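Recap quiz, item 2
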Amino acid sequence: MTIDISQFYQVFFDEAEELLAEMERLLLAVDIAAPDPEDLNAVFRTAHSVKGGASTFGLNDMSEVTHVLESLLDRLRKGEMALTGQHVDAFLAAKDILKMQLDGHRNGADVDQDAVANVRMMLHDLSEGTVVPAHQPTVPSFLHAEQKQQVSEGARRFKIELPDLPKRDVDALVDELGLLGRVSVTPLAGGRTALIIMTHERLDDIVAICSFVLDPDALKIFEAPPLTPEQRAKEAQERARIEDEQGYGFFDPSDAAAPAAQSEEEQGYGFFQPIEQIRREAGIVAETTEVQEQQAAREAQELLDAASEKKAAKKAADAAHAQAESGSIRVSIEKVDQLINLVGELVITQAMIEQRSDGLDPMLHQRLLQSVGQLTRNTRDLQEAVMSIRMMPMDFVFSRFPRMVRDLAGKLGKKVDFITNGAATELDKGLIERIVDPLTHLVRNSIDHGIELPAARSAAGKTESGRLFLSAAHQGGNIVIEVADDGGGLNREKILAKAKANGLAVSDDMPDAEVWQLIFAPGFSTAEIVTDVSGRGVGMDVVKRNITALGGSIDIRSARGFGTTMLISLPLTLAILDGMSIRCGEEIYILPLGFVVESLQPLAADVKEIAGQGRVVKVRGDYLPLIPLYQMFNIEPRITDPCEGILVILETEGRKAALFVDELVGQQQVVVKNLEANYRKVAGISGATILGDGGVALILDVAALLRASRQLTDESVVSRIDNTTN
Amino acid sequence: MSTQATTRTDNHDGSGSEYLAFTLGSEEYGIDILKVQEIRGYEAVTRIANAPEFIKGVINLRGIIIPVVDMRIKFKLGTPTYDQFTVVIILNIGGRIMGMVVDSVSDVTTLSPDQVKPAPEMGTAFNGEYLMGLGTIDERMLILIDIDKLMSSSEMGLIDRMAA
């Protein structure tokens, strides 16, 4: 039987991505001056989980990077090193590398191997930075004397096993050799030390240097071929692993990796092969297998010691892991949607039962009716609970901004305090995914164009660091997301000038709100409004379009010198809609409540005919176009006189119109169904829903209806609002 | 919305294919049984604005919304009456579900390849392009329709075509 491993890959990818995001969040939150050990532990755990997963799936590049990361983190959380800003930067860079590798595995995206090598080097260098081992040779710190000298390709590597020497001499030797190339120190048992040197110099020179402090005959020198990148990686892993075993062995190498690593261990440093010729040249007396046997025995003992330690550590690690995982399960979105559909069906069935039992005599069927009442309540609760599965906290979106803000502010030389509020506010997953891009654009805009440079801020009497607020809150049936900065605000004159240059109809005495809306016009580059930094891909028109497509709206408030606030208002979910059901002819239609302003029955005097152009209705001084739904949809009308029917005043894209329908039926929440899944797009219809009686009602596409109606009516008399928007 | 590729199911394995036989007016038609999901009675549909007359509207099929077409109107066969005997054949064409109103459904028959004759180049209500052939069972003659091709055609207008 074969198991399709790809499905597990997907799980790992998802999980790793979340873990990396979590790592980033933790890193950004960590207080460098006084790091909370619990935070460091948490970062460490995420790194470790990624490593575990990566090695299980044989993604060695990822597990290697995480391993180096983990080793450094481990020292930090043990308090052996003080956390510095450098560390955090390095960790963030490592996280980016891991993300890149992850994408590489997942989508076949390019992985920049140089960047990978750089980050690993950086992590290495950081772990060298410690001085702890200088006077405690037993502490595993093979890197403490490594020189940060660049060793280019073609360097040779030698391993020098020193006899028992005073610490002072070893240090002196390391310093001397450091002038030749990269030196690293590995403690051996029995107080002896081995040096590994990577250099372009000849062996003679090395021996000459060594002879200053000791008898060359006591040296054992091996030459190793230059490292291939693979070996380099192996070496790094090996080092880190040994480090683990000698006291930091909190974690077990993953099962698959363990045997390989062990065999390597047994062979000593597998890539060092004694070369007879070198020894002769150096005049070294070849020692026999005795030494090697000793070494093997030593290392076997080390392994044993480490094994018991690891066992205990593994238990602790498992417990921690179980705790982290028990909180949630991973379910595919299809399953959730299926569940939602089924519950939707149940709700309809329940409504049918309720409807049919309505006619029964309450005296005779008291118990039945009671049960039906209970069923109704339970179904509603169930529906609510199921719908909430799809809801995700806004934190999912917010969490990706601190990093972006930090990087962007750094790049632009600005200081920005990023404050989020209401991250727990829940929003439908479908919406969450589609709000990320517009929000990203707005946040970038705020930093790029809104918040001024520290000097300019000081001059304006503000604090040097600008503040950027991102908040989310429920407001009625909507969620309102706010992106606010305390920067310079929009520049009215520049916007107006640009609008005129673009040929938009503007006047100098337009209200501010209308001026701000101009920046949403296509081709209206925000970059040219406030600063000279070039725009990036998405324009504000795309932001607006995306938000409108989600059924939301965007508003701007801005005051010169005090900042700009963007208010995005979105429906809570795409799947459920607050609708007003109306009747026209034989059919029931649903109007999304968000578009409905009011409904009224007009007086005959308020309805005016415009020759050949249709009718308008006067509502509180404004003439609104009258759209008879029966005409739009070619329905056999029951009522043709607006004074007998109902006018529903709709508003979208800043225009109003009166939709003439037969009657209002009621107001209800409806589950939105896609019409295109099995049919095709219908003009004027945005979807469909299933009514309580099992029938289908179509949901009107208000924006499209109003657009279509404008072709029927004369623009000039529609309303004065039109003048400003077109 | 991607256009559905029409996959013709030509069975030449000798065992023959099974066809669902139904009537439109006085003619008897057959379609590949594998395209049929279920058969239901006709129920009230929700009309779609500005749709051609043969598209009766949409119905709720256990939570999914599917369009219903009346073949009798589309091909001007028989008189469209809707009573308790009117039948809707629910088709699954490349993952899309749709309903097709016919006068009646008779049976499921197996036709071996030698029972299927090529259709003559002459007037049936259907465009020749959608005919797979004529099946003969004793005295009966089934007009075999390539329902995939028919339902996916732009003539039916059931599926959005990508703008060329």
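Chain A is about 45% helix and 20% strand.
Chain A has four domains: 1-128, 333-390, 393-571, 576-725.
End of item.
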